[in-house]
Design a protein that fits this description.
Shape: elongated
CATH class of the largest domain: Alpha Beta
Radius of gyration: 31 Å
Strand content: 5-15%
Number of strands: 14
Largest sheet: 6 strands, parallel
CATH topology of the largest domain: Rossmann fold
CATH architecture of the largest domain: 3-Layer(aba) Sandwich
Helix content: 40-55%
Number of domains: 3
Oligomer: single chain
Strand order of the largest sheet: 2-1-5-7-8-9
């Protein structure tokens, strides 16, 4: 039984307590027919209450047996009144005792079940919610729902282009509920978790407007935002670094969430500082509010990296053909990561750098396997913001895939690439923070260095 449902049952019991007082008053005034009518109404009310508890608990429950005893007592009292042999004080005491027994059973014997809903949009970002979902799923008193939500690419004028729905890209062990088969108003989850904080303000993509954070707040008492990314650690006094990331702190999802879970205590203090500055409110009341709202509990993305083991990973056959040497041993695997920001900042210069990198690794393919994993939003972003750049970028992608000497990874599984690779090379991005958790080498590419 959900918390709200339990409170509703207790409210119904309180109504019966009030009815008992009215029955007692009617008996004291010798209005027997009125008292009998009220007893009959109490009995109907109690039958409905018992059926409701039975339906919600989905099994025989001790509370229902107490309700049945109460109904029998009401029947006998009704008969006593018919014979006109009764003691109103005794009747009042018996009814009160039986109802308190039911009330205590509801409070102590009915376990409150929580409902947690997780709303990922891109499957490749599921790792930012997975460990929290696992904890909820393993809680026997919690019903956890994973509901992938649709998102749209946007045209330059802000209108929606094609819709994407990636429910088929999640791990097989994650049970999926369709977004159009879940009634949020009926369920009213105790908690809703999101990892997309932008609502309508992202220029490139948008989740379906129903799933904007300001709308989701209508269906839960606790909206929780966990960023889909991790950043390089920043101290609260590093003003220059804060200036470069503060836009992450002042998005709708942060403002609308009841709780925000960030990667560390330092990052928590950064969020608090940025939000107080943005509101121009540095009062103790504002700080206390934000300290309760922003929690530095760590990112689930770190949990995913730590819990992913190479022996549990199924490497695709087409990858193995590139990775394995003739003697069956593996080549060194380099995870090559290219970011959206890098492309937008350097344009054709970045494409030139990529072609240079591919040429070097192609020449050394007998000893080293390149695993290229571009940012999942490259197409949506570059095609929308730099159409000409996209045409040339797409040509490079197709050439790389057709030549077949390297791995092209556009799957939702980032952690597979992190785990099977031996070193990281590429742009500065949130992936770097995750990769550093492995202790393996990390090297940043310099776009200006091209032969």
């Amino acid at each position: 039984m959900r918390s709200a449902q339990k409170q509703e049952v207790l409210g119904l019991i309180e109504s019966l307590h009030q009815a008992h007082e009215e029955i007692k008053e009617a008996l004291l005034q010798k209005r027997i027919a009125v008292a009998q009518n009220m007893i009959a109404e109490c009995q109907e009310f109690a039958v409905s209450l018992g059926e409701n508890i039975e339906r919600l608990e989905k099994q025989e429950h001790i509370t229902v047996s107490y309700v049945e005893e109460y109904c029998e007592t009401l029947f006998h009292i009704y008969e006593e009144l018919t014979s006109n042999h009764f003691n109103e004080n005794k009747i009042s005491k018996v009814l009160k005792k039986q109802l308190i027994k039911i009330e205590n059973s509801v409070k102590n014997d009915i376990v409150v079940r929580k409902e947690a809903v997780f709303l990922p949009y891109k499957a490749s970002m599921w790792d930012s919610l997975e460990s929290v979902w696992k904890a909820a799923d393993e809680d026997e008193n919690c019903d956890a729902y994973v509901i992938p939500i649709p998102y749209y690419d946007k045209n330059p004028d802000g209108s929606f282009r094609e819709m994407h729905y990636e429910a088929d890209q999640y791990p097989s062990y994650v049970p999926i509920t369709r977004y159009d088969e879940f009634d949020f108003e009926k369920h009213r989850p105790d908690m809703i978790y999101i990892h997309n904080p932008y609502d309508k303000w992202n220029l490139v993509t948008s989740v379906h407007p129903f799933f904007y954070s300001d709308n989701l707040k209508k269906f839960t008492d606790k909206l929780i935002y966990i960023p889909y990314f991790v950043l390089g650690e920043i101290k609260p006094d590093e003003d220059e670094k804060i200036e470069g990331m503060k836009h992450f702190c002042t998005v709708p999802g942060v403002y609308n969430a009841d709780k925000v879970i960030v990667q560390s205590e330092d990052m928590r203090q950064v969020y608090i500082k940025v939000l107080m500055d943005a509101a121009n409110d540095h009062s103790e009341k504002a700080r206390t509010f934000l300290e309760n709202k922003i929690l530095g509990l760590g990112s689930p993305k770190f949990d995913k990296v730590a819990n992913t083991r190479r022996e549990d990973i199924k490497v695709p056959e087409e990858w193995l053909r590139i990775i394995e040497k003739p003697d069956g041993t593996w080549k060194k695997i380099i995870f090559y990561n290219t970011s959206v920001a890098g492309l937008l900042a350097h344009n054709e210069k970045m494409l030139e750098k990529m072609e240079y990198v591919f040429r070097i690794f192609k020449e050394n393919q007998d000893e080293v396997a390149l695993l290229w994993r571009p940012h999942p939003l490259v197409k949506a972003t570059v095609e929308s913001m730099r159409p000409q750049l996209w045409i040339e970028y797409d040509r490079i992608v197709r050439k790389y895939q057709e030549e077949g000497w390297g791995i092209y990874d556009d799957s939702a599984d980032l952690d597979r690439a992190i785990e099977i690779s031996d070193a990281y090379y590429g742009d500065s991005s949130s992936v770097v923070q995750l990769y550093q958790q492995t202790g393996k080498p990390v090297m940043m590419q310099n776009v200006e260095m091209v032969e």
